[in-house]
Amino acid sequence: MYKTRKLDKPWILGALAIMLAALLWSLDGVFIRPKFYIFPAGLIVLLEHALGLIVLAPFIILSWPKIKLLKTKEWAAIGWVSFFGGALGTLMITQAFFAAIGGEVTFATVVLLQKLQPVFALLLARLIIGEKLKRSFYGWAAVAILAAYFLAFGKTGLNLGEINWLDSAAFYSVIAAFAFGSSTVFGKRIVNHLDFKSTAGLRFAVTAVLMLIYSLFTGDLFKINTVGAVYWGYLALIVFTSGAAAMFIYYYGLKRVTASASTILELFWPFSAVILDYFINHNVLSWAQIAAASVLLLAFIKIVTRETAPKFEFMAKIRGGSGRGRVLGFPTINLDKTGIDINYGIYLVESRINGKIYKGLLHFGQKETFNEPVSLELYLKERLENLNDQEIKIKEIRKIREVKRFRDAEGLKKQMEEDAKELGN
């Protein structure tokens, strides 16, 4: 009798959200952004982020109690994503496409080099946040990247001799690929520790400030009076499609999948762009493109339905705490959280202490009754003494729930009693 494989619903929802965001980005690149060719790229990037900030600002205000507790590590990640992914990356890819539209360089140069993005992201995900997925994922990732190249050049063919590697647009494309790829990785670090709505809002806020400074320095801001009513309409369309709306959806997805999976699923951008071009502009696909699109779609299906979020496993040092858990009747072991890059939440885990395995509950995140800094705490049914300064191994079994806010200690105690049922008798 065959065992039915249980699907990872959060993973599937997250993956589909990434693909939907990529679809919206393809609408931008094919049908909207080229209309702004006559304007300075810096001005357009500033305006789309300023308008997007207006839409997302309420999420920043509502989540400010959590935001102000972010550590230097998280703020550095927000700064990186805003500068590289928001300001520099968007500016560079806009400049590159404008150069291609103006005939300075072929679109092949821009597209080919920009496709380095998943390569950068996969490497940085492994090096920076320690993502290590199953071999099957990396196999399908390689298939997806190759299929994306054939999809992009399946009609005209890829003639490397036509590519001007020394043109400024080639430099713009490589910088954009690195910027977007690295932003996927650092974006994952942010949504691990903050809700996706606030993450999107902060990204637009910081990027808008950076682009305002840039536009003042270059003088682009003073050309805002040249933007007519029609183009303001296009900018509003960007905000509710490929801009703020897409980023909102994207971070919802990134919170539920790995950065490595996200960068491959973002290849839905060229897939959807070619398909839209076929239906809207009636540009017939070549057989090579049809084959590449089919293979890429298969890779997406495999990644969405067959892959799952990897279980974490790490070593942590035991340290002293305030004893608050003991007051509630649930004494916890406080752990050093240095270097831990996982989602906030309550987890059922296995812990190895002094050579023995104990099942426990792991809390990672802000205190659930107080606006205090992040804590990493382990609750065990067994009472273990004199554990300070020891190192223990923690291995995830499954996530039980998100970190919640409780009005009082009594509410938290009732929830902890419910959580403790996961440990069994």
Provide keyphrases for this structure.
single chain, 425 residues, alpha+beta, Elongation Factor Tu (Ef-tu), domain 3, 2 domains, six-stranded antiparallel beta barrel, 16 helices, globular
Give a summary of the structure in a few sentences.
It is found in: Membrane. The protein has 425 residues and is of the alpha+beta class.
Architecture overview:
The protein has 425 residues and is of the alpha+beta class. The chain folds into two domains: 9-306, no CATH class; 313-423, Riboflavin kinase-like (Elongation Factor Tu (Ef-tu), domain 3), CATH 2.40.30.30. It is 58% helix and 12% strand. It has helices spanning 9-32, 41-62, 64-67, 72-101, 107-114, 117-128, 135-153, 168-193, 196-218, 229-239, 244-254, 259-265, 268-281, 287-306, 324-328, 409-420; strands at 313-319, 332-335, 345-353, 356-366, 374-380, 391-401. Strands 1-2-5-4-3-6 form a six-stranded antiparallel barrel. The mean pLDDT is 84.
SSE topology:
Elements: H1 9-32, H2 41-62, H3 64-67, H4 72-101, H5 107-114, H6 117-128, H7 135-153, H8 168-193, H9 196-218, H10 229-239, H11 244-254, H12 259-265, H13 268-281, H14 287-306, E1 313-319, H15 324-328, E2 332-335, E3 345-353, E4 356-366, E5 374-380, E6 391-401, H16 409-420
Antiparallel strand pairs: 1-2, 1-6, 2-5, 3-4, 3-6, 4-5
